[in-house]
Amino acid sequence: MTTKHSQHLTDIAKYLNVPLGKISKNDQLYARISNNKKTIGILNIIFSLVKDSKSNLGGLEITEEALIHQWLEFGIIYASDGNSKQNNQTLLKNLNNILTTKTYLVGQRLTIADVFLYYSLLNIMETLPNFEKENYINVSRWFDNIQQDPSLRQNYNLIDFSTIYLSNGLGKHRV
Amino acid sequence: MKKFTINGNENNPATLKVIVANNFRKDKCEVKIASSNGDNSEFLPHLVVNSSEDYVFMPNAALWILLQPPKELTKKVREFLEIEATVLAPLLATILGTTNKLEASKKHSVLQVLGIINSQLNSSKFLVKDTLTIADIAIFSTLYPVLKVETWTREFLLELTALQTWLSYLELLPEFKDGISKVFCQKISSGQVTEQSNLDLLKTQLSAKGVVSETVVVTPEELNAAKLAWNKLKNQLPKLKVPQSVVLPKPGEKNVFITSSLPYVNNVPHLGNIIGCVLSADVFARYSRLCNNNTLYICGTDEYGTATETKALEEGLSCQTICDKYFEIHRDVYEWFNISFDSFGRTSTPLQTEIAQSLFLRLNNNGFMFTQSVDQLHCEKCNRYLADRFVEGGCPNVGCDYEDARGDQCDKCGKLVNAVELKNPKCKICGNTPKLKSSSQFYIDLPKLEPLLLHWIKKSSPGWSHNADVIAGTWLKEGLKPRCITRDLQWGVPVPLDGYRHKVFYVWFDAPIGYMSISKAYTEKYEEWWRPSQDTDVKLYQFMAKDNVPFHAILFPAILLGANQNYVTVSHIMATEYLNYEDGKFSKSRGIGVFGTDAKNTKIPSDVWRFYLLFIRPETQDSSFSWDDLVTKNNSELLNNLGNFINRALTFVKNNFNKTIPQMDLLPDDYTLLALCTREVKGYINALEKCRLRDGIRHILSISRHGNQYMQQNQPWVKIKEGNTGKIRAGTIVGLCANLAALLSTLLQPYMPETSGKLKNQLTYSDFVLNPNNVEIVNLLPEGHKIGDPQPLFDKIEPELAEEYKKKFAGDQESRKSPKDAGKPTANNNITLNDDLETLQEAVSKQGMVVRKLKESGMSKSVWQPEVAKLLELKQRLAKVSGVDLTLKPSKKK
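ok -> structure tokens follow
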């Protein structure tokens, strides 16, 4: 886990419009102190932020909750800035396969899982060359969809997924 | 109800998780297990939700679906799952997946996580309260490969007894057994056996170390003994002896004489020195006093020799002043560490002269000394023979034309030099050319003493630590050679024979005699310790690091035996291996590591330093000091285990029973606890009798662990609300725990004297006598005993503090001085000195030391070359000022 996670937590709190409280890292996990309540672990912190915001971005039933858990864990483990290029490629390939039939990560609606993974992938997507975006067309579609919400994007740049580079044939020739 | 299908693969701990979780379900899912080498691009294991085609590929999410934790435990379970998935599993995957050497940083991180888990398991049956949840399943599965392979078990699980118990409990549950056989069985057809034998091996290792009892069942005999002991009347107990101002041995009693090797005066001791001798000896001395033995513990600084002379010259002070200065530094450091010397003396005393001279004369008369002439450089102007360090000249090594080689080593080519071979040698003090003179020196005739020594070693060595035995054996196997025991120096004990009065004794002869002179300084009747009467038995225990073994196993006994005066010789040589610093070496010359004076300046109390150093005492092999580990041990063992237990018990007595030990009606369960703790006390006594100090601590911690578990199981906070009988039951439970706290206060005393003192204050209680021949736990705090105010005994150490210290102590000592010292002209400051003679002389000698140390430390030429250049420049400037050119080549000589 890298320090960037505290940035993600800040972004999420801002997006959800709830006070973040105090974030610290001791032993191996992050902790949040807010309203004199201590919450330990990124997953717990994110769930607590969602709860504070009273939004419906959390899981409504057990399978949904588990799937959100899955994507949060996925983001923490696999979408790390320190990744090698090869690791990033594996990450994007796997994600691309899973997103083939999906608009959102969990169910048929935006959840906190999409929000967290958006922030987690920002750096990777920003540095991904256009011709490679084409290889991960489902990831690109999903990412482009998520980033359209200005309140979620905050001060981050819109990443260019202009289809002219992404259409199948052309991209390949450019490589 | 939704239907799921589980797809998994063999030999995958993550598959184990999912299968075990499924085994706990009422309606089992369909399970498909692929062989592990199948080429499958899918995530395995995964779960398919049959109705929605949802694909769950992160194992912990699958667990969440299969076996949802109770709502009130959700947060805590998720916390453990996160630490498992994001920290523990990735770390173990990289560690277990390669055959490379285990990286220390990774090992620390794993141990840190396991430490957290272990301390959680100290206070509850499962990870989250007393309910088995998917947190237990996930962490068990991830640790399963560690449990299966002996080397990893040793690496990670050995000291974590609660974790160990929990693992072996879970492994035997049918749901886990079935999962293990499905996921791990096919590969290891003989596997069941391997697996089982590893687990058995671990258990026997642990029980051999006395760390964990094979079973928690106590025998009827043990129970009976516990009952009898508890109901003994307190006034039947022996009382601790009143400390005497002078301790002397007594006939018919146990008399224990303890020394720790004498530290050389001219530097500051580092942690390795401290654990190697003074601290180890201190624990043993304190223990021995608790056993009511007549115990004398002495030590002191070893002050004579060339190194002191050099230092004195360097600092422009007299040898005596130098010794006075450093003696105080040593004394203060040991005082801060609460080392309970009966006397901390020094060797530069008239008593040393008296005893060394008389022993020498006796050996000489007995025919164990002879003289032989040795060629040495002599400076006529200074009227002294020059020790290697006091002469410089042209390097005699072929191909090196360096003009300023030292008498022992050339700064330019780095090769060793024989001082008498230097071209154009010069006295470093006055610059004159010394002449080669042969000088007669005394040798101790060890070959002649060998038969006496061999006979003696056979009798004595069974009481020595293993390494001492081995080192002495090697010396004897090679055959003993005569050793030169005099030198042409001034700072030392003069040889008391005409023609030799300008010579002094060398460290080999002189230093160990310090033990005798220091005890004479302590009492006029010192011979009662060194030459006790026939009816008095004195056992001499000498503590040291292994490099000092030859002095204590060969040379000093040879001197004592040769004197033929019935001197007491050592019966227990207790030698430690080396302590490393964060996997490197402590280095006095490079200032790496934590020194006695540094420890004092940290925010960590001396008791915690003592605890940690003893916890990692390099007993049978080298060990490492690590800041991360220190923090983990403090927070998990001292704070969460020991401190937590004691504080919980005492606070309960204070809040619910008005600080008074309540009525205690013990049930069989309570006697079981006492029987279990009696075992630990026995283990403690056994360990300390044999100076296995590391093990002693572990028994102390096991007692509080038993106590914590007992409290947790019996829940006095619930009982107290259950009417009168409940109140009596709660009283019995906490009364018993308060008694264990009293027991611990004495057992802790040798290790952590300040903490023990604090605790005894809180208990309004004092130490009891340990009886190695009859170990039992009696009712120390009877009903009606009033306790004081319970306070937490330990503080948490934040990991940030460790990081801070890690950085701070990574550099050399020079760089960590406070800014006010920074302005002082050190040799490293570039040359901005005033050109006055004294400053320059000091700078030259300091820079000389810098160069020498760099080379001794084996640094590459590129590192030391610039320093040599600085040295030369300084010398030139000194020459200009003083008129004596130290750098001139002979050809340019005026």
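Chain B touches chain A through 31 residues (CB under 8 Å).
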